[in-house]
């Protein structure tokens, strides 16, 4: 038992320190890598849970549409939202006011709700009031938010780099809107490296 606890502690330490080695990627075609200014966030995509959403994320990443896009809404103890490919440049006042309303030129996606809970590190697709309105925006859970279960599509989970997500610049209380937000520098599918 003691040996098991020590091994678990060593594994957790190795995954949470800046000196940590790269995580083992088992399925590069279904692994997304988000480069932030502070480090890389590695997301295991779940095509068996949300095939349409995973395919959309891979398409937009491969087209470079996520590169440079801001985390426009970040709420303490809740989530960090990004993926507004239409209004990625928030330096313009007009775009800053409209951040979070944009989508790709592709059609919206039909909901793919599942029984997977919105725990810390889970990645879900943002949408408007309609369940079938997800398009390009997504969010990473900073803490569990089970009230989202079966209301939003889960398409992935962070397997490495959650400490970098935790350090994304927070928005104002209430709306979570971020002035001078952090950005995804580069987003890629691991198989394309």
C-alpha Rg, in Å?
16 Å
Look up the CATH topology: Cyclophilin
Q: CATH superfamily, called what?
A: Cyclophilin-like
Distance between the termini: 40 Å
Provide an overview of this structure.
This protein is of the alpha+beta class and 193 residues long. It has one domain: Cyclophilin-like (Cyclophilin, Beta Barrel), CATH 2.40.100.10. 20% of the residues lie in helices and 19% in strands. An eight-stranded antiparallel β-sheet has the order 3-4-6-5-7-2-1-8. The longest helix has 15 residues. The N and C termini lie far apart (40 Å).
Helices and strands in order:
Layout: H1 2-16, E1 31-35, E2 40-45, H2 51-62, E3 73-75, E4 79-82, H3 93-98, E5 122-125, E6 138-141, E7 154-160, H4 162-166, E8 186-189
Antiparallel strand pairs: 1-2, 1-8, 2-7, 3-4, 4-6, 5-6, 5-7
Structure in a nutshell:
Helices cover 20% and strands 19% of the residues.
Short descriptors:
single chain, 193 residues, alpha+beta, Cyclophilin, eight-stranded antiparallel β-sheet, 8 strands, globular, disordered N terminus
């Amino acid at each position: 038992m003691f040996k098991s606890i020590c091994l678990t502690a060593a594994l957790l330490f190795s995954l949470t320190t800046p000196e940590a080695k790269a995580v083992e990627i088992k399925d590069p075609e279904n692994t997304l890598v988000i480069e932030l200014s502070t480090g890389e966030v590695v997301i295991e995509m779940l095509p068996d849970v949300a095939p349409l959403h995973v395919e959309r994320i891979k398409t937009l990443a491969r087209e470079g549409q996520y590169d440079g896009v801001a985390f426009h809404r970040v709420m303490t103890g809740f989530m960090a939202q990004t993926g507004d490919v239409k209004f990625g440049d928030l330096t313009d006042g007009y775009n800053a006011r409209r951040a979070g309303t944009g989508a790709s030129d592709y059609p919206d996606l039909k909901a793919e709700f599942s029984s997977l809970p919105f725990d810390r590190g889970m990645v879900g697709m943002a949408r408007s009031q309609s369940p079938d309105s997800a398009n390009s925006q997504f969010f990473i859970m900073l803490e569990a938010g089970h009230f989202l279960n079966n209301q939003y599509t889960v398409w992935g989970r962070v397997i490495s780099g959650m400490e970098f997500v935790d350090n994304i610049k927070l928005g104002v209380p209430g709306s979570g809107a971020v002035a001078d937000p952090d950005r995804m520098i580069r987003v890629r599918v691991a198989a394309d490296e």
